[in-house]
Amino acid sequence: MTKTNISRLLTRIFSILLWIVVIVLWIPLIREKTIPRLWAVVSVRPSTVLPTPIAVGQPFEYCVLKEDAGLMDEVQAGTPIPVESVSLGPKPTETAAFLAPILPIEAGAIVTPEPVEPTSTQPVYDEIGGWQVEVINMGEAKENNFHLVVIGVGFIDEAQNEAKLREIASGLEVNFTGVRIDFAYVRSPLNLNLKHVGQMVDFSNTGDLDRVLAKIREVHPVDSVAIAIETPFFLGTADAKQFAMFTASDSNTLLMATHETAHLLGLGDGYQAFYIGRYLPNSELFYLDSMPRILSDALPKLESIPPLYEVGTCKGRKLYTFYERSNNIMNDYDPKGPNSWGDSVFTPLQIQVMNNFVATLK
Ligand SMILES: [Zn+2]
Questions:
Q1: Which residue ranges form the domains of the chain, and what is each CATH number?
Q2: Which comes out higher in pLDDT, residue 100 or 159?
């Protein structure tokens, strides 16, 4: 065999292998609509001309775990932390029986290592299939919109559940004005079991999310659920895909619900003290030469390019954000006056990013 033949053979083998990879890996991804999501997080150098960044305060290093790191940061970093179940309702049920074991967590949502044995304090798994789910629509569910259904967990009183959920859903409707999302809620409380580490909360039983989504889909289109939890704990989590959870009866419930729901529509966090790699860059914290595609695609659609701030570093690499941070609900939210862009809690850029995100899903 000559040298040319060998190289032809190798090229051929390589291209066959490449096709196998394409077929095996990409077809299921396309089927599950994962590709647009992946595409959305690819980072690029933006084509838009950006303003000169404004430097604020001492630059903060976001990607190194500090010695005095809080519980949430340690969880993000993968430190095993014991999980607690969330007390349901004003009279907490017996919880000690099903405190979950140690939790290996990568980040974001909490993952249960093993299924927890059902006890008398937990609903039987099959219960969800038998639930009576009546969905109340806040308006018309438009086909190409993102459909969010709010459900209540831990409410003892049915009327109280409905009143609270209606209040949250109508508040969300106002806060998401201009975003392609519609809201509905389930009339009766649903007795799901949840667990938490610090503010992060998740299902105790893996599989309950799918069961709940399937149950609601029998009567109403749903992309994600927002779970309002009647609990004494201050909780808030989103898995960036199909659920947001938050404390139902705090004075900050609506802001929390708004923030967590925005995660389901592609917005990242800008307030954390510590990030693991896959959470940066995001819509709120990014590098100038490597911006999430969904953010750089949204910029040219704005009437004007927002002010740019230099806010710190990730392992020495400079991180930036748009708009003043304290006015940003995904950032260090503490507005001291009206927003420069108008009444919305979201910036025009965030609204554009969320709509682009919904467009990739539908
Ligand atoms: Zn968040």
A1: 34-63+280-361 (no CATH), 71-260 (3.40.390)
A2: 159
